[in-house]
């Protein structure tokens, strides 16, 4: 696939008008593209699409990413690598523990409403250090120093939800935190919720396995196929 891009004209701020022409895709097609790229990465046959000098020049005047990745800042969670994508494909926002504040939500809203991006992915991973830090803080009734406290505080609702469900292992808490982040984003952003309700966008929570390199769906909101199904990717 040489290009993917934004849906047609929609309400909201003006979209970027410069750059090459793009093809409109649905949230389900965008998810299929990510899934196909991750399979290539896992099996060791990546294509490294859209990473050549010609494509670099083609996207210099405008961007039309087909997915927003709200991911953990962990150095082993590089979205363009694990999904086998290139320049202009993914709009990536990363914070420790994929915590979301106004700047993160604003970035997501920009991608969805200005760039027309049809898919938002919350990407967590196993053995998450941020989750472990929050778990330790909750168990010892202490708070870390400096601005790390803000990260831990932002994760406490997920820790409380895990405690209520009797979930104590870090990876189980990660799944709960991913699902909570999806819910919190939709609850905090009327703009994003409206795009999902209109069928122009979908939000998916995914967890990445560090050793295996695989992603799996934890939760989803929007017009998407059953996660158990094997969607057919858009044409490459």
TrEMBL record:
Cofactor stoichiometry and binding remark: Binds 1 zinc ion per subunit.
Annotated GO MF terms: carbonate dehydratase activity; zinc ion binding
Cofactor(s) for this UniProt protein: Zn(2+)
Domain of life: Bacteria
Keywords: Lyase, Metal-binding, Zinc
Swiss-Prot/TrEMBL catalytic activity: hydrogencarbonate + H(+) = CO2 + H2O
Residues that hold Zn(2+) according to the record: 72, 74, 125, 128
Pfam family, one: Pro_CA
Any Gene Ontology biological process: carbon utilization
PROSITE patterns linked to this entry: PROK_CO2_ANHYDRASE_1, PROK_CO2_ANHYDRASE_2
Residue stretches in coiled coil: none
InterPro entries to which the protein is assigned, alphabetical: Carbonic_anhydrase, Carbonic_anhydrase_CS, Carbonic_anhydrase_sf
Region described as Disordered: 1-22
Annotated EC: 4.2.1.1
Record-stated family: Belongs to the beta-class carbonic anhydrase family.
The protein's role, per its UniProt record: Reversible hydration of carbon dioxide.
Cited PANTHER family: CARBONIC ANHYDRASE (PTHR11002), CARBONIC ANHYDRASE 2 (PTHR11002:SF79)
The protein's name: Carbonic anhydrase
């Amino acid at each position: 696939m040489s290009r993917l891009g934004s849906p047609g004209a929609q309400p909201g701020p003006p979209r970027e008008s410069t750059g090459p022409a793009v093809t409109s895709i649905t949230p389900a097609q965008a998810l299929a593209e990510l899934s196909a790229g991750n399979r290539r990465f896992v099996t060791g046959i990546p294509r490294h699409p859209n990473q050549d000098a010609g494509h670099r020049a083609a996207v210099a005047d405008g961007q039309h990413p087909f997915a927003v990745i709200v991911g953990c800042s962990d150095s082993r969670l590089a979205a363009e690598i694990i999904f086998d994508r290139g320049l202009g494909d993914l709009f990536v926002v990363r914070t420790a523990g994929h915590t979301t504040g106004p700047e993160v939500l604003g970035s997501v809203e920009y991608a969805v409403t200005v760039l027309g991006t049809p898919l938002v992915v919350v990407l967590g991973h196993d053995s998450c250090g941020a989750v472990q830090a929050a778990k330790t803080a909750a168990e010892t009734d202490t708070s870390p120093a400096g601005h790390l406290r803000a990260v831990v505080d932002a994760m406490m609702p997920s820790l409380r939800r895990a405690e209520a469900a009797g979930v104590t292992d870090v990876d189980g808490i990660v799944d709960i935190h991913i699902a909570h982040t999806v819910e919190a984003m939709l609850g905090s952003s009327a703009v994003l919720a409206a795009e999902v309700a209109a069928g122009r966008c979908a939000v998916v929570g995914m967890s990445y396995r560090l050793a295996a390199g695989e992603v799996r769906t934890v939760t989803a909101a929007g017009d998407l196929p059953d996660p158990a199904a094997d969607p057919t990717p858009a044409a490459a």
